[in-house]
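Trying the structure run again after the queue cleared.
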Amino acid sequence: MREINVEEITRTIERLCIESNYYLPQDVKEALEDALDKEESPLAKEILQDILKNQDIARTNDVPICQDTGLAVIFLELGQDVRLVGGDLNEAIDEGVRRGYKNGYLRKSAVDDPFIIRKNTGDNTPAIIHTKIVPGDKIKLILAPKGGGSENMSALAMLKPSDGIKGIKKFVLDTVDKAGSNPCPPIIVGIGIGGTIEKTTLIAKQSLLRKVGEHNSNPEVAKLEEELLEEINKLGIGPQGFGGRTTALAVNIETFPAHIASMPVAINIQCHVARHQEAII
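Done. Tokens:
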């Protein structure tokens, strides 16, 4: 049994809050550069150049890539041979978010009541924590700040099994088309298929953590990812909604077994910055 003091978790979360908001992931940067090479619209090329310039300024000057620094979404893998000491795990994570958003000069976007007073909590807590118990004596933390513009364009449909692939495609394309410029394209489209209403939305969000260009291991699912990416980019929304062939950088699909009567499909749209950082303790 390995002991880990929760203060180490707090320090790690603080660092990840700042790094995820300052530094664009390398795979996303490379995907944007590749899109710039392939883009045919002069205006779209100019916007992609500005996006790349913006991330370079953020990285060089240690400032946020975007003013919407998101709600703190944490994916926590807790080794079953770890014994936590020194305090409460969830409070340690929230304290890390408080420190990170304060010391990183990151905008606080959390309100304590979703539909009555909507008063800002002042420190971007509480964090949204997804915990999974895994073998081993380590803790893996992934912090993925999620902005409102892209999250608001996400959607869930409880499709019938008979709707099949055709129904999935229609739902995805209709959702992206309706979203238009709101999620700050070029986007990454995370899709969950199967499970229950809460499971499918979770795996849709988790799919966004996959590297751009890395496909699902199931060949049939990978084929659907490629087909949807092609069809989404034919919509002509383009970077920031000004037209062009680059509406999405990737489509990532995760699946889970479902009830015989159900085929839930969730779409979690991510903006072009696709922020996330991870650490292992």
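Helices lie at 6-22, 26-38, 42-61, 89-103, 148-151, 164-179, 197-207, 219-233. Worth checking whether this holds up in the mutant runs.
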